[in-house]
Design a protein that fits this description.
This protein has helices at about 5-30, 55-65, 105-110, and strands spanning about 35-40, 70-75, 95-100. The termini are far apart. The radius of gyration is 22 Å and the shape is globular. The protein has about 110 residues and is of the alpha+beta class. The chain folds into 2 domains: about 1-30; about 35-110, Phosphatidylinositol 3-kinase Catalytic Subunit, Chain A, domain 1 (Ubiquitin-like (UB roll)). The chain has a 3-stranded mixed β-sheet with strand order 1-3-2, with helices on one face.
């Protein structure tokens, strides 16, 4: 037989296993880019491809609409409110933006 052959085969197997594990890890952490639209249906023009948390989406929308992030409300495709403590996976698919009232205006109105 060939003395180096089993070692090469074992190395190739470990390398293939390592690749499978690292590929799986990447797939688990990758969050699909959400489709973000206003209540009117108009898309929000911003780059949501690199989001890592809900606050990132809120900031991106706020920047695109020239609003502070605390005035940006987010709803999932099922209509549930998406909070900053939600995981980014809550924002897969369609995310609807609703603009919250300005707290200063609400205070002045009372």
């Amino acid at each position: 037989g060939q003395p180096g052959r089993p070692a090469r085969a074992a190395g190739a197997l470990l390398s293939a296993m390592g690749h499978a594990v690292s590929s799986r890890r990447v797939r688990q952490t990758k969050v699909p880019t959400p489709e973000v639209r206003l209540v009117s249906g108009r898309p929000v023009e911003a780059d949501f491809s690199a989001i890592s948390c809900i606050a990132d989406i809120r900031r991106q929308v706020g920047t695109a609409l020239d609003l502070p992030p605390d005035r940006v409300g987010l709803l999932s495709s099922s209509g549930a409110e998406i909070r900053d403590c939600s995981t980014p996976r809550a924002c897969t698919g369609l995310v609807t933006v609703h603009i919250l009232p300005d707290p200063r205006e609400a205070t002045l109105a009372t």
